[in-house]
Amino acid sequence: MNRVVNNPEEVVEDAVTGLLAAHPDLLAATDNPRVIRAVGAPKSGKVGIVTGGGSGHEPAFVGYVGPGLIDAVALGEVFASPSARSFHHAFKAADGGHGVACLYGNYAGDNMNVKMAVKLAEREGLVVKTVVANDDVASAPAEEASKRRGVAGEILTWKVGAARADERADLDAVIVSAQKAIDATRSIGIGLSACTIPAAGKPNFTIKEGHMEVGIGHHGEPGVAVVPTRSARDMAALMMDAILADLPFAGEDVAVLVSGLGATPLMELYILYGHVAEILAAHHIAPRHRFVGNYFTSLDMMGVSVTLMRLDAELDRLISAPARSIGLTIGGKS
Amino acid sequence: MDSVSLKDAGPIVADMAAVIVEHAAYLSEIDGAIGDGDHGINMSKGFRRAGERLGPHPPDLAQGFATLGETLLDEIGGSTGPLYGSFFLDMAASLKGRDAIDRDSFGAMLHAGVAAVIDLGGAKTGDKTLVDVLAPAVATYDEAAAKGEPFHTCLEALDRASEAGLEATRDMVARIGRASRLGERSRGHLDAGAASCRMLLGALSRGLRRHL
After folding, report:
1. What is the ipTM for the molecules in this complex?
2. Do A230 and A271 touch, CB atoms closer than 8 A?
């Protein structure tokens, strides 16, 4: 393992120190070292927006904290859910008196910790409602959509939920919009190499040299097929086929997000996007918002994910609203 | 009816924490074979912190379990924190209003803890998880109690069943959690959560038997 770390068991602590030092205009520490809030949060009169998840996916999750986006985030160990108490503390850090929307991804640990945290908050009279992202089409068939994992589509869901909260919508309305956002969103990933959790020191799974795993999860969860690596054009076709087969997108407006998984050069992400754009055009799908970069990664995994969100007027308006964070900035200042 | 006062049983919680801290490397090693390899690190972190919170003058068993459960919810994320956290919190809640534990209230306590784990995690027997230790342990305990065996004998049966439950996970294929990625390749290895659970039940059973 050849990495820029100190004690491999304290990478999260060390990363938090650096994040806070680098972005004092965006991020503020709280009493819980695993909870970071936005500068200026909580905002009174607004529904609080919270997310959280394991570390190692940077800029997710902490990189989406900021005006127009997340109010407070709970950070877990590498690839492990934050504790129930950390989610609970994030709820409190985001609470501006109008309840909290917790928008997170569908993983066993996160589900359990959020469930416990919501109970802890309820006992204090703090109302928390949740939306669970399940945009990964490769992780379960459509008829078992509730088993699907949440991946990069989470980012668009945060954006929508947060923008709705900024419009001073009440908690139920924020939840309705965020749920609509994830229901309109589909993603799929391709992995080209495994990743290494620093504390473990070696990858805990492998992808055969010269092969790619179609539908791989953000922690190396198994995909649908391992096949010899194809051209970027064919990768784009494979991924778009899976997405377009799952939800009718033809003739619609969309937001499209191409994310690297950590170790794939940006140049290659743009190569892939070029082909995604061709496919969209062929299906008369109009990309109104395009995001290409390392938005949701898996440590040093090589690979890429594609996310499509079908837009109606409301989702388009909410995606367009100004926001500023490490990972995503839209419009002028907010 | 044989019983142990909750006050006398209090120090057992510290014994349970100690057994986890002592075997942290072993638990991580088991987990490393088919999982992330962090079970021992995470468990020992939480249980060590719980030991510190319990302090040199341990509270009674109910308060001890409550403190342990709270600490795990505070300190350990992943799946381990909430599963063991609610296990101990719900066992603590079932002891509310008592000042001693006997055969039947122990059975009720165990049922409350196991129900919390199954309700939260959704694992079934045979999925290669801690439920494969908990379910046979509680079933065997119930059986012995139904036969009218004394508390001490029921606790011995629980201890043996939890050991057998752990061994049985070796031949299972993981169907839930991160090890499920490996499918057939998870066979031939013990489950780390089952291993820590067996250690905890063993320490609890031994600790109570010392007072009977």
Report:
1. 0.83
2. no
